[in-house]
Amino acid sequence: MTVDYVLAREALVRSLRRGIRDERVLKAFGSVPREHFVPEHLRRYAYDDRAIPIGRDQTISQPLMVAIMTQALKLKGDEKVLEVGTGSGYQAALLSKLAREVVSVERLPDLAQAASRRLEEVGASNVRVHESGETLGRPENAPFDAIIVTAGAPRVPRSLLDQLALGGRLVVPVGDRRVQQLVRATKSDRGVSLEQLGECRFVPLIAEREGWPEREGSANGMQPAV
Ligand code: SAH
C-alpha cells in the first residue's frame, strides 16, 4: 500500500487542531515531513498519532505530545532554543520553523549524526546538533529563550534552569522512569515558577547527576514510550 503523505499530514494537522491553538505550531506540523524522520520500514505509520521506534531503544515522540510541548514553549520566531534529546530530529525540524536558532543535543552519537543529516536534507539550516557533553544541555551556547527536554527527568534539572534567559521557558517531563508530569518552568527576576501541564510518558533522560543511570544491556531498559 502506498500512503499519500501530503494528505496524511493534512489529516494530522486537522486532528491536532482539536487541542492545539497556536497557528504557527499547526503550520509547522503541516510543513515538516514526519515520514523523513522515521525508519523506512515504518514510514506508513508516520502520520499515526503515536510514538515510533527509531533504534537504540529510543522513539520519535507522539505528534500530539510534540505539539503540546512545542506550544508550551510560546515561541514567536526570534528565539534561541535548546532541545535536549535530538532523537530522530523531528522536533528540532519543527522548532527550526518557529524560532531563529535551534541547538539540539543528543547523547547517542549515531542518532545525533543521523538526525543531523536528515535536518540538512529538509533544509533546516538554523539547527545545530551536538553530541552531549558532561553538563546537561549546552552551557557554552547559553542563555536560551526556551528549552525543551524530550526525555523524562527525575526532577527539574537545575543546570538547565541556569541556561535559561530571564523570561525564558523550560518544558520538561518530570517523574519516574516510566510516567511523568509535563512541567513548564518560567524564569523571571522574582525566581522560577512551575506549572503542571499533564501526564506523559517519555524514555528516560540519562545523566549522571540530574537524570537516570543507564541500564545494563539496553539504552533505557523500558517499554516503548511516547
Ligand atoms: N525529540 C526526539 C525524540 C527524543 S527520544 C524526536 O523528535 O525524535 C529521547 C532522546 O533523548 C533519545 O534519543 C536519547 O538518546 C536522548 N537522551 C537521553 N538522555 C540524554 C541526555 N542527557 N542528553 C542528551 N540526549 C539525551
Describe this structure in words.
With 226 residues, the chain is α/β, with parallel strands linked by helices. It has a single domain, classed as Rossmann fold. Helix content is 26%, strand content 27%. It has 6 helices and 9 strands. The chain has helices at residues 5-16, 23-31, 63-72, 90-98, 109-121, 158-162, and strands spanning 52-55, 58-60, 80-84, 101-106, 127-131, 144-149, 164-175, 180-188, 191-200. The strands form 2 sheets. Strands 5-4-3-6-7-8-9 form a 7-stranded mixed beta sheet. Strands 1-2 form a two-stranded antiparallel ribbon. Strand 4 (101-106), helix 5 and strand 5 form a beta-alpha-beta unit. Helix 1 (5-16) packs antiparallel against helix 2 (23-31). The structure holds S-adenosyl-L-homocysteine (SAH). S-adenosyl-L-homocysteine binds at residues 58-61, 84-85, 87-88, 90-91, 105-108, 111, 132, 136, 150-151, 203, 205-207, 211.
